[in-house]
Amino acid sequence: MARPLRVTIWNEYVHELTSDVVRGLYPEGMHAVLAAALARLLGGAVRVRIATLNQPDHGLTFEVLAETDVLTWWGHAAHERVEDEIVDRVQRRVLEGMGLVVLHSAHNSKIFRRLMGTTCMLRWREAAERERVWIVDPGHPISAGIADEFFEIEHSEMYGEHFDIPQPDELFAISWFEGGEVFRSGCTWRRGKGKVVYFSPGHESFPIYHHPSVQQVIANAVMWAAPSGGLYLGQGRNIPQPLSPIAARHVVDESLHRAK
How confident is the model at residue 229 (pLDDT cuts 50, 70, 90)? Predict the structure, then answer.
């Protein structure tokens, strides 16, 4: 029997400790709601651990990351408190094949900006307006289990275009908001051997992570982002001996290559 997918849920866990409104919605933290949803929807297919900002190494030690197949990331108030060394670690693991699922305001996290190479900024409005999430690629694995063409979130924070991201490899959801804006709310990319998902619904002041369809999409995203394929050789290698004989065309000055 294959081992369970090892999932680490990273939550900066700041709002729940400082806001009565957020604590009322998520008394044990947003991470606890997400962990329970994954356990209910995926059962024994996953093994979940929690990591938060205030833990040593933000809970993302070398050992934890080595034992993580998919990392989910939620942040908002403390992006700049995440140490660059930890961002480096996470980036290396993504390039090696670890999946990364970036949620809501983590569009502005250091790790997402690093992997995208852009500002990842957008337009926003906090007006508790209705959000309609259109599934624009119903055949995508992340869309599985969503019965209708769209689902609605009664109260949400508006995220609007332009969203400064590279062109997604795949776009599986677009959101429309009551105020008229639209937003690319479900996107995927590949970085190195790793898969990256961005899914926007999830403002801390609304019970969005209790929404069944939101939970379903996140569970699907975790499974889709699982590592796949063979060994990734991410470093350049000099191959002095060819597999088949070749005739030398010119003399190489090795001194020009020593700095590499």
Answer: confident
